[in-house]
Amino acid sequence: MTVVDCPTCGAKVEWKPENTFRPFCSERCKKIDLGAWAEEKYTIPAAPPVDPLDQE
């Protein structure tokens, strides 16, 4: 059986079909993570796009 850490609180979680919240340990942790996404706390760093018309 595979065991993972809950991304929100770090609790050990069994990775099995009966665990509907996996990889989270509970609905609460799942909603905390969703809230972080909604507040744009997770970002992917990137460079601003280059406009070919601005190049000389």
From TrEMBL:
Its cofactor is Zn(2+). It comes from Rugamonas fusca. Belongs to the DNA gyrase inhibitor YacG family. This is DNA gyrase inhibitor YacG. Zn(2+) binds at residues 6, 9, 25, 29. One of its GO terms (biological process) is regulation of DNA-templated transcription. Coiled coil: none annotated. Gene3D superfamilies: Erythroid Transcription Factor GATA-1, subunit A. Interacts with GyrB. It comes from the Bacteria. It holds the Pfam family YacG. Keywords: Metal-binding, Zinc. Binds 1 zinc ion. GO terms for molecular function: DNA topoisomerase type II (double strand cut, ATP-hydrolyzing) inhibitor activity; zinc ion binding. The gene is yacG. Inhibits all the catalytic activities of DNA gyrase by preventing its interaction with DNA. Acts by binding directly to the C-terminal domain of GyrB, which probably disrupts DNA binding by the gyrase.
